[in-house]
Amino acid sequence: MKYLLLLFSIVTTLQGFSQSRISYVNYEATLQENFDYQNLDALSQNWTIQSTQPAKSAGTALYSPAQVSLLPQGGIRLTATPLTNLMAAREPKGKDFYYRSGMISKDLKENYGIYEIIAKLPNGLEDAQDAWPVFQLVGDHIQINIFDGHANINDDLRQNVHKSIDQETQYQCGHSWDLEDFHKGWDKGFHVFQVAWTPESVTFFIHGREVSTIPADQLELPIESMKMVVALQTGDATSQPMQMDIKKINVYRHKEGRPFSYLMDNSWEFHTATSDDTKVLAQNRAIVPNPSNSHEVFYIGQDHHLYLASGEGNHWTTRKIGNQNIGRSLIYVNANDMLLYRDDAGYLSGFFRKDNDFIPFSKQNIKLAEQPSVLASTRDGQVVAILANQKIVSLANGSLSVLAMAPIDYRGDLTLTPDNTILYKDSNNKLSALKQDELSFTPVALPYYQVSDAPGSILFNTFNNSGQGIAFRGTDDKFHLLEKTGDQQYRHSIPAYNYGFQDPQHPDYIASNLAGGLQDVFYLSEDGRLQLFGWNTERTQRQHFWVDDNFFTQKYLADIQAPSLAFGHGGQLFYRTRHGSLGYFNWEHSSKDCTCRTLHADKEENFNLISDMEIKVYPNPTTGRLLLTLNKGNQDDVYQYELVAANGQSVRKGSFEGKEYSFDFSNEPSGIYQLNIISGTNQYTKRLVKIK
User: Fold this and answer.
1) Do 291 and 249 belong to one domain?
2) DSSP collapsed to 3 states, 121-166
3) Model confidence pLDDT, tens digit, residues 522-574
4) Following CA atoms 123, 144, 211, 112 in sequence, which dihedral angle do they give, to the nearest 10 degrees?
């Protein structure tokens, strides 16, 4: 009997935003300020500490040196304190002052460069405290806001360029984050905000990940004297004190004779390979890419049946294989084109592949252990299995008959190296190894290290020139490397974590299984973010990198309760998303100007940046007609709209009146689009997804 593949659905999806990491290779540090001063007098030798000058202050705060303090471990704190008595300042526009706060500034000798700050935003930024924290480059006509918070006024955090002539605003251009809808916990820890300003463009970053890029010809910025300003500005909506901590400020200048480029040439781009109807089971190692075909990946569905997703880029087909319940420990034996797994009864079962058919079988004489990982395959097609009686066996290529057997103290994480050395953790979670030959298993001496109890905590990879290396998640939940040196000794290290800026910070915890690809190690952190350790540019040390490169990280978060993470033959990083779908990141080349979003400046009128959260679209993704609702639109206004395809081509233009508009999307091809809506000086933007 033939067991045919059942076609379930064809899913057409989009690439994620093609953002890049910041690169310092063409720049050198001219300021690395960690504020390690003995007192404020020493600080004032390098920075201007703003004195009380009501006529020049911003917001509703008076600035005083008393509101600037040094932190014990380095860094400074700006504190805003409510004034006991309302103070009025006489100035041309008139202003009342409600707070006393802190500001520091520094004159710039030259303007172009990379500016970055490591700061903890004000306590209460998201609790209607009316905080306006800023890190700015300020001139007579230009203001580049590396961050500009507006809590309780617009409840947003902006990164933009502001230009004015004769006190009249010409435009604001950049990006705005909605504090409530996007990222909770802005004030819960330190964040890194950056801008790269060159004669070619201005690009904003958060944690070294590109947010938006504005080409210079859209800005026409004049050359003028600038200063760098850090301040805790305030409004008048609360009586509670607040503070902002600054750990470090760095400035990098362009190296003479080098290009102005400040973006890495490559990035990880996100794809979805399955629909909601064919979700991945929440189980460790539920995803198995075909090691000889980069366009295929097998996985266990939520119905416990086996599925095959095949395709690439934006076009994937999902197929169901048979009706057998798949237990766990799914593997693909490349040499025999065979899938193996532990069935519900505990026996070794699988599918032989013949052309496009999958023929099921079961080995009732081989009962497997209950641990999550009890099967592995060697390069030559032999299978290693952990039996229910706590013995390890080697099964012959093809026939799966027993070749060798030995007792084993086994806890989990069965892993095979290219030379058929078996790595695992014993009942005490000790990192252990066996050397396999055709008829026997021989213990291998390893330094004593304990491995995390979590599944998927051991990985073999090529870490150095000798090609020898073991990565493991320790009992401290940190990432450990055990590398074999030229003298055949093992060297242990815990690499520093580097989050998009130069100085290593304290690590987060590894919350999921490790996966290896090329010479990198991938893992999931406790918040579900995909991250990796890889070589730095000079290949002298291993560094930490984000994988998703996108500040809209929620759609890319992984399931960390029962994670499944696997590296495909074609360079894809497959995983189960938090929503249950099969997602993956692919390493792709991206051009310098491929950005999250570019908002075009209107040089004749004010340009008001409005977040795409102001537009509601239902349904999105859509197969045809959808309904647009402008949350802050006016019923009597007329709006111009333009639909732009992913390649930048204008697809459709038109107009509508009122806050709602029914939009027929059925004649457009599948893909990703940006909808621009303009009314007067306001521009709204929204990403739209069209599926078949």
Assistant:
1) no
2) CCCCCCCCCCEEEEEEEECCCEEEEEEEEECCCCCEEEEEEEEEEC
3) 777 776 777 777 665 555 566 666 676 555 566 677 877 778 888 887 778 88
4) -130
Asked if residue 280 and residue 202 are part of one domain, the reply reads: no
**Identity of the residue numbered 572:** Q
- Looking at the structure, do residues 685 and 559 belong to the same domain, yes or no? no
Q: Tell which of 560, 589, 618 closes a domain.
A: 589
Whether 667 and 680 have beta carbons less than 8 Å apart is answered as no
Tell me which residue range forms the domain holding 426.
Answer: 5-9+268-589
* Full-model pTM: 0.60
Cα 506 from Cα 478, distance rounded (Å): 10
* CA 661 – CA 73 distance, rounded (Å): 56
Our count of domains for the chain comes to 3
Nearest to 468 by CA among 417, 397, 520: 417
pLDDT in tens, 33-85: 999 999 999 999 999 998 866 544 456 778 899 999 999 989 999 998 888 76
Integer CA distances (angstroms), 427 to 410, 424, 432, 479, 625, in order:
6, 10, 10, 21, 58
What one-letter code names the amino acid at 685? T
Residues 6+ apart with CB under 8 A from 384: 375, 376, 377, 378, 392, 393, 394, 395, 414, 416, 422, 436
Mark whether 186 and 316 lie in a shared domain: no
Q: Kindly state the tokens that stand for 597.
A: 């979003």
40: left (phi over 0), alpha (psi -120 to 50) or beta: alpha
**92 domain residue, yes or no:** yes
Phi first, then psi: give them for residue 218, nearest 5 degrees. -90, -15
Q: Are 594 and 210 in contact (CB under 8 A)?
A: no
CATH number where 490 lies: 2.130.10.10
